[in-house]
Fold this protein.
Amino acid sequence: MRQHLQGRHLKSLGAVVAVLALFATACGDDESSSADIDGASFNASFGAFGTYDIAAENAKGPFEEATGARVELIAEPFEVLVQSAVTDLATGTGALDVITGEAWIGAVWDRMRPLNDFIDRDEYGQDAIVGLWEKAPRFDGKQIGVPFTAEAYSVLYRTDLFEAAGVEADWTTWDEFMAALATVESTLPDDVVPLVYSWGASDQLPGIFFGMYDGYHINSDGRWAVDPPLAEAAIDQLVELRQFSSSEASAYGINEASAVFTNGGAATIIGWTSFLREGAYNESSPVFGKWSASTFPGPGFPFLSSWNFFISGQTDDEKADAAWEWIKFYNDPKRAKQNFIDFNFQAPFAGFFEDEELLADYANDLPFQKENLERAAAPAMTLPAYLEWSRIMGEVLLGNLTSAQAVAEMNEAFADELIPTPLIQKAQVDGTFQR
Amino acid sequence: MVTSITAGIRSRRWFLSKERLFFAACVVPALIVVVAVQIYPLGFSVWIATKDWVLTASDGPSRSVGLGNFRDTLSDDTFRRSLRNSAIITGFSVSISVILGTALAFFTRAAGWFNQLSRTILIVPLVVAPVAAGTLWRIMLNPRAGLINTMLDRIGIDGPIWLGKSTEALISVTVVEIWIGTPFVLLVISAALTTIPNTLLEAAAIDGANRWRSFLHIELPLITPVLLIAVMFRALDSLLSLDTVFTLTQGGPGFSTYTLSYLIYNTGLREFDLGAAAATSWIFMAIAATLMVLTFWLQARWQRT
């Protein structure tokens, strides 16, 4: 009898534990409600970068377990990812449900599903970085994209070398930054250059150009164009900045430039911090504990790299509900923090940049990222248009064009080309449309 | 009359014969596949080459522009520069790889383990994926820590900034193309050389011809038709090559290594300007076809003489 009672009690206890476990699963801090989307099936595409896609693979199991929905992950290299998204959306094939991308697929943003109902219902994005959320992808005033990464082009400098030279890293303009470089240069060891940059990766050049240029990108006729006097001045400044790097840097890509900085070969670097962290935060690096990020000089904006989740306009309501839950699940603050630790990509939330645990390790980096992200932007351009401008800037650095000729070519390159409406709208929101 | 009727019946019988049906059953599926995957897309590309069709703007061609896309392409500065770059890369890489491949085939012709091993090692680049080759060479051409400049430095030469300057970048792409292409020529010419009877070379030796004269007056004329085919394949391969430029320079610096293949890729799969990309592809195809016709003509002419 006693044994029987014990057995009954154990069974009751087991039932209570099971109910509590189910309740805990349903109410888990980063889990979504599974009631509505149980059994739904959709796909989600990611760049096969070994970061976002692996993070998605890690999230897939817990998501499916928590919600009962099924997500098929599609990982593709960058170029293929863009091509797949554009062709799928442009042709209305409807092969993709959740699409990840940036402004490079802006030409087909009008084929995305508006997310305002989801965002309003779940009061989503309240913690997003001020300035960044406002620049999230929109079409006809409706938000169609939700950022899941955020990184701004940065200027990093060697604190020890600047201290030795008695120079404060308090620049706000490129002239001030170059003045600081000129002062530091005279105190540097022979094997250290004032600046290292991926001058050989022509697609990076606009990262600095847009920081130096404070004019329109789309003129009042709706064509990609730049304000000649401002653009010429910016290109001249770009050429001037080039003088602070070694001649070898003409062939450097991002990785090579990052390696030079983390090996102690440069006093400053301009670029993506994510490419540097692995080396610069490594105790064996000569720059470990001797570097910091800084305010990105103006008057232009720091270049923004922000990957967004979109839901295809072809996706039906049931799949869209499930897709939205996936977006929230992937973007959950705790998961985002873990993704940063594991894969080194920053979340677009203010809370992420104020996390005390992260700040303890990344104090010389994350606060400046947040500050720069608040005024960062991505140009309202398609990838080919952007690359065309990049190459023209590259021709200037090769000495084949003057700044005036380059600006003329930039304005002529797309004089006959109509810009997709979503990108015009983006430029209007970003303030880069000619008034 | 009777003869023609009989012939007609015989022909009709043959047409319906089992043998004929069997052949048809074998050929028709292959024919359908060829039409579906080659003829139809080619025909379709001719059609869209005359249309204004940017995929991001509409899911179908919007209007007919006649030869407008061809005119625009031919008058485009980037096209002209790409054409020039392609001609330089292909011209130099094919010439050098043919000379080098033939020489290597000649020197490793003899039997023996050393020559066999040499041939095997020399053929290795042929099995390296062009994407991997481009990446590998990008690392080797790094001006600061790359193998090439380190080696040049050891012998007192200040290595150039290979991928950072226009001419040097063009040379770099050409060198990689030579590296990739030479083993193919070596392989083909080695095979051709083995078909030459030893008796011819022995007779020449008896007549007092040295090894060089034997090669110049006996072997080279005999392998020339094969050599021309190798030239054609190498030229087409080099013209079509996208991987090398994509991984090594991305067409840069500036437009310095922009090639026709890269231009077509960029126009079609980045800009999604399908009309312009189709027109450029057809111009490209015309150039490639001219090259093929020229090769076959030279081959026929050589065989006649």
About this structure: Residues 1-35 of chain A have pLDDT under 50 and may be disordered.
